[in-house]
Amino acid sequence: MEGAGPGTVIYVAFGSQSYMTDSQMEEIALGLEMAGQPELMRGDRGKKARERAQELGRKAKKAMEKGGSSGKKLDELIECLTLRQKNSKTTR
Q: Which Gene3D superfamilies match (predicted)?
């Protein structure tokens, strides 16, 4: 794709579609290409989108690190479920 390279942001909205097959993705890519719709944001808008994507990427990685917010929430969930299971056994 012309103009696509490092630092390129491609924005495609699929609405509530949560899973797409490889053939569906290929069909969309081909359709956009044939329509001459460049899937690329240029200029100030593209720069802002790239910066936001990078920021969100850093936050996501940090959340997944050991001791990050995602790990802490998972630990809290496991602890809560364990306590509920113990309490249900003692009230029987």
A: Glycogen Phosphorylase B
